[in-house]
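User: Reviewer 2 asked us to show a designed sequence for the structure in our supplementary figure. I'm pasting the structure tokens here. Could you produce the per-position amino acids so we can include them in the response letter?
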């Protein structure tokens, strides 16, 4: 260890997404290749001498206790734990994190010294992994609220690769076998179905970690929610969600010296008649077992919605992935004018 193949694979994975800015400390990590990267892991991050680095992923992450703060992280998967090497700007973003992060060493007088927080989730503490709709993100759940992290990969390939690597590493864990199942009687077997909890597809790994995937009902619930936002103009039966993708809304910052822009995370949902932008809570749902009350905000909050027939043109940028799209809509004062004329002219 490590093999040439593993060194090459981890080097290829060590690339920051071009549209996201990171601190100097993480840029240093992204510049490491091959053996230097493995030595950095063992010298600065690894907690046990004999653990092996198996996978590396650059992703935005959200913590359960700070669901509004999305931060860039280098996610390192070893045979013992998952390490989240966080952007050092994260420490200063939210005053409520003082109890969550140890700040003793965060203010260094020496400006040339760059510090990163490293959040560690041991594989033995891992309880479940929830995969988001269309593999756009995944949530890792441990035994308490401090141990719930969502990785917003915004990429089904990266999500799939990480889940496969995690399953492979979990297979190496020596865990005590599950207790024998208790024989259920008729009433407990069939009487506990109407709990109101949606049954998702669950895959229980040999390490007893649950991998939970969304089912068709989740899309149905989303379609119902979208139909509500459309003021009942569309029949729910004919409403199809064509696209669900985690994207960024670009807000240009005016008055700055350079042409800078801020990226606001949004969920884009396209139906056959409308285009919606939602603010989605990716880390609080489904509710963890220890949650005593629902989160303060809904899972989906409508940020913007426009009708496709008001779309005038779509402008495409020339840069490579990620592609920038600009949707230009007609600003019609009376939005229902065309609809009423059509109905009058053509009858029912």
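Assistant: Here is a per-position design you can include in the supplement:
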């Amino acid at each position: 260890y490590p093999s040439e193949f593993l060194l090459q694979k981890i080097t290829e994975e060590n690339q920051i997404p071009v549209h996201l800015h990171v601190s100097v400390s993480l840029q240093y990590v992204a510049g490491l290749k091959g053996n230097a990267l493995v030595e950095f892991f063992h010298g600065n991050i690894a907690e046990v001498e004999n653990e092996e680095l198996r996978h590396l992923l650059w992703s935005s992450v959200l913590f359960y206790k700070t669901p509004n703060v999305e931060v860039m992280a280098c996610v390192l998967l070893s045979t013992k734990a998952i390490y989240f090497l966080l952007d050092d700007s994260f420490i200063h973003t939210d005053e409520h994190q003082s109890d969550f992060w140890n700040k003793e060493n965060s203010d260094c007088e020496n400006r040339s010294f760059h510090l990163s927080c490293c959040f560690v989730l041991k594989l033995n503490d891992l309880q479940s992994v929830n995969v988001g709709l269309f593999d756009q993100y995944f949530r890792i759940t441990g035994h308490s609220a401090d141990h719930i992290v969502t990785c917003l990969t915004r990429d089904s390939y990266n999500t799939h690769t990480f889940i496969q690597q995690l399953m492979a590493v979990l297979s190496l864990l020596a865990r005590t076998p599950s207790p024998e199942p208790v024989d259920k009687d008729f009433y407990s077997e069939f009487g506990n179905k109407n709990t109101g909890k949606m049954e998702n597809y669950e895959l229980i790994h040999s390490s007893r970690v649950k991998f939970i995937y969304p089912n068709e009902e989740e899309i149905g619930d989303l379609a119902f929610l979208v139909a509500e936002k459309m003021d009942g103009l569309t029949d729910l039966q004919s409403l199809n969600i064509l696209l669900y993708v985690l994207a960024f809304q670009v807000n240009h910052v005016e008055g700055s010296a350079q042409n800078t822009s801020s990226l606001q995370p949004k969920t884009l949902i396209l139906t056959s008649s409308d285009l919606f932008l939602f603010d989605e809570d990716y880390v609080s749902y489904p509710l963890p077992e220890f949650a005593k009350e629902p989160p303060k905000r809904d899972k989906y909050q409508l940020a913007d919605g426009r009708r496709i027939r008001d779309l005038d043109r779509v402008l495409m940028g020339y840069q490579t992935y990620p592609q920038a799209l600009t949707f230009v809509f007609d600003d019609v004062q009376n939005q229902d004018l065309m609809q009423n004329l059509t109905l009058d002219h053509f009858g029912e």
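For the response letter, you might also mention the following. Confidence is low (pLDDT under 50) at residues 188-198, 337-343. Residues 230 and 274 are 8 Å apart (CA to CA).
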